[in-house]
Design goal:
The protein has 2 helices and 9 strands, in the order E-H-E-E-E-E-E-H-E-E-E. By secondary structure, the protein is of the alpha+beta class.
Amino acid sequence: MRIEHVAMYVNDIEKARDFFVKYLDGKSDDGYHNVKTGFRSYFISFDDGARLEIMNRPDMTDDEKALNRTGLIHIAFSVGSKERVDELTERLNSAGFDIVSGPRTTGDGYYESCIIAIEGNQIEITI
């Protein structure tokens, strides 16, 4: 069994799509729009087959996203090397994204950094 995709609602669907394509090498489909409900989505595919669905609809709520909350807390992307973690973290920092931690080696042996990227959602970058 494998996870087929993960989905997230966002307010600015175009900005979210551009982030995953520009910084994490995702490939976006052409999108879907249900004109009756206003629902829109894009599937972002990554080289290893993982997919992320970003979605938007007019009747969403946008609660505050505390870092230490229950539920899904981050999406982790493996970039292949310590150097690539460092490079992407610096690139995101230079682009104005908040770095929450790292780059660093965690107590359980991961080399990672964590950023706040899309509308208060955390992205982890690891080897």
